[in-house]
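Before a colleague's protein record goes any further, I have to sign it off. Alongside the sequence sits a line of tokens, each denoting a local backbone shape. I want your independent view on whether this chain really folds as the tokens say. Where you disagree with what is written, explain briefly why. This is what I was given:
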Amino acid sequence: MADADVPPALRDAVRRLEALTGTTVRDLADGHARWELYRAALASDAARPVLLAAVGAESDAALASGVVGEALERVPRAERESWVRALAPAVRAFSTRRAQELGTLEDLRSGAGVREFGPELVNGWSDWLQLRIATEVSDPSVLRVLAAAGRTKRIRRAASVALG
């Protein structure tokens, strides 16, 4: 894609992000250059609303999905759905699941999570979520289940170590 082929909405969002972040994209058609701009924007609360518009206008679905994956960890829970909806429907599944998993992780960290833990529940969690829980949640009942039924040796070991 040449600069001339960049959709006007994406061109506008990139220019606005450049002004907000001080990062310049020399070749608008270069996805790697846009990624660097997007990473700079992720670090700026002021730039995130414009970044969300850029995601919605982004012609590279994989790039947009990567940005949303990074944003989900940084934005408040109430904003995550708008980031997922900014993606093309064909690439939303991963980000939808990650947003749900982050909610589960936050609930468990705060102690507001599920009260009945068992292997059946843990089996529905991704390896990513199981490992994050094993390293970030202090609830012994959760850690015991992961130590016994975590999907991988790494997860089981991390949970066992966290139990002390």
